[in-house]
Design a protein that fits this description.
Strand order of the largest sheet: 1-2-3
Distance between the termini: 41 Å
Shape: elongated
Largest sheet: 3 strands, mixed
Helix content: 10-25%
Number of strands: 3
Structural class: alpha+beta
Radius of gyration: 21 Å
Oligomer: single chain
Strand content: 15-25%
């Protein structure tokens, strides 16, 4: 179900805790980062009321983290990477490296009659 509802964003402050208490090292793969995501909610493939994108901002004493919950419906890993990269560039006031997405439908010319005849079985 599509809607015009905003993206749910959760904010949490942990002023007496450092990021290292959650993110154990600089590796991309961590054992458990669930504390950086939105409050857990039961999800199933048929749960159409769950937002496709959810964000959680956590302010620690030393850094701020952004947790992103992204439905595969929005795109694959490359799309997610480009989204997070563009989000980071926008936040830092930098110019986008990747072109902005376009939702225009491509228009292809009609094939020539000779091409149609050539490709017919």
């Amino acid at each position: 179900k599509s809607s015009n509802d905003g993206v749910p964003v959760e904010f949490e402050e942990r002023p007496h805790e450092s990021t290292s208490s959650v993110v154990l090292d600089a590796h991309v793969i961590q054992s458990d980062l669930s504390g950086l995501l939105n409050s857990p909610r039961q999800r199933s493939a048929l749960d159409f009321d769950v937002p496709l994108l959810r964000l959680k901002v956590i302010s620690f004493c030393d850094e701020t983290t952004l947790g992103i919950s992204w439905s595969h419906t929005l795109g694959d890993a490359i799309a997610f990477f480009r989204f997070t990269h563009a989000f980071s560039q926008f936040y830092q006031g930098l110019h986008l490296v990747y072109p902005p997405p376009t939702f225009e439908k491509p228009v292809f010319p009609e094939p020539l009659e000779c091409t149609i005849e050539e490709l017919r079985p």
